[in-house]
Amino acid sequence: MDALIEKLKGQIIEQLNLVEVKPADIKPDAPLFGEGLGLDSIDALELIVLLEKHYGIKIQNPADGKKIFESVRTMAEFIKSNGKD
Amino acid sequence: MELIITSYCKIKRNTIYLEGNKIISSNSENPSYFFAEAYKTLELNYPKFHKMDMLSKLGFLATETLLSIPKAFGTEFLLRNNLNQISIILSNHSSSLDTDRIYQKSISNKDQYLPSPATFVYTLPNIVIGEIAIKHKITGENAFFVSEKFDAELLVNYTQELFKEANTNAAICGWVDYDDANYEAFIYLVEKATDSIKNANFKALNQTLLNQLFL
Amino acid sequence: MEIFTSYHHIISPLGFNSEENYSAVLANKLGVKKINFGKLNNLFCLSVFSEENLNTVSQEINNSHLFTKLEKLSIFSIQQVLNKSAVSLTDKKTLLIYSTTKGNIDLFENQLPNLISKKRMYLSTMANEIGNYFGAVNKPLVVSNACISGLLSIIIAKRFISSGQFDNVIVCGGDLVSEFTVSGFKSFNALSVNPCKPFDAKRDGINLGEAVATILITKNKNLKTNSSMNIVNGASANDANHISGPSRNADGLVQAIQNTLKNNSEIKIDFINAHGTATPYNDEMESVAFERAALSEIPANSFKGYYGHTLGAAGVLETILSIEAARHGQIIKSAGFETSGVSGKMNVVKEYKTQTINSILKTASGFGGCNAAALFVR
Questions:
Q1: Which residue from B minimizes the CA distance to A57?
Q2: Quick check: B172 and B132 in contact, CB under 8 A?
């Protein structure tokens, strides 16, 4: 799980062009949205693209994203539960 | 009503010029690196910059050179004008075609069909106006024109008409074009020639002057 | 100086001229239909031209093999307005403004026909080709300002006439339904697979549509028609909030409306033609703006339920339909609307109604945080 979390951090930084953010700045359990990273509605849609691009997971209902993208850990758990890590 | 150009900026061939003076120059042939270097040198501290497409980065850098660097005369531009009376009127030749090509790649293959919303949103040329507006909370008139060449007559006439309508007290105008690593930005600030901002350096807005400055 | 709308023309899947289009919306005909579209052959709800439609258009154009789909539709539409008005683009006081977001974007996907170069993807090259067909002496001007392009072009036309640079401006707006735009709006999760429902509680996204619409803006009194309306004022404004998300407090649209109505308080607005795309956030934002501008009681509609969102054509198309509605003294119901699903108070029209319309407020909003409004009076 930790390895997946680390990998995800790198992929998030790349997908969202967070050039000034380092992987260590993203805490596994911290909320991805709201504060900190300053992510917005387009970033939320880009995370859906990330899941499809790197893990082949299609999110049919974008409303599900809210739970999946709570934190890097919830993202990792979602990927695991889809057997796609 | 006399309109004057109170400051202007040019970006071309890895160099940023403020009012004709070279202020940033780079050896980098790659526009991405040059824009990133300029962002650092200007100390813009605006992480959203990295999310922009090349057209928006170019227009943003030119505008920030005018409005955000210490000592630039333009920094007072935002203080002496109401933000809801500043218009942003830009033009170019290539619209958003450079980013269109990047987006098209993401949908050209049926088996790797991954359209990116963050790229798609930049496939409109006026997004650069939005980025400039957001940075400084400028809410005045907008227009994005596409023409074969820089059209000074069009910009002068349109700007004059906007000022006559009274919702415009100042304007950020110019040309911002990015196409396949070729780029050019020329952005200038227009204000009314009032007593308080009379300055020998300011020049009356007209076609001849614009064409000279653009060259 | 009075500057007013004159002859106009619409070509869309609902009709080949303004009259056919007006009759179609009056008869509650929808251009939007469920079809499979694109490389992935997914189901969408779109309003698109048939091959038969396009063949008919090609037959009306000289050397039609030299032109792209959008150029042909545009030439066809502009030709009708030039014929009816006897205005010519060979006159140096006449300008062609072309309003579009994506122009010949379909050339990315389609095999390029012989004699058509990839350069036609440049909007100014496309506009020049159209202008050259009519021997235009002035280079056409392209306005590409997202979804407000059409309405903004009409406002810009008025300003150029008012400045004295031109006497007549032909404003032509056009956009196609393409793999490019369909996939892009889908990636934004903004498309509905059913006919869209502007301002309704069950709205769940836009439909895309293709159309070309042309209107002559002039100060020449000889060109007054029985549908002419004065363009009293118009304005644009930016939310300065987000590049794709509509402003929550609707500041930009309120500013555009207020600047348009400023100094015109004696004019009672009879009808509002809103943008009404049917995305949850856009329609919500508009409703907040109309309430804040104290326009809640005025009958309002959106034409997106009939045509889908025609992007660069929308502002021109919807202005033409609105002035036709005013000429006929009819209020066209807002297709797809049953129960309000917006928090701002609005009077969205559910049924066709006969009513005198002497003034229209038209609005539009788009990506990049842009908003526009214009006031037309008979």
A1: B114
A2: yes
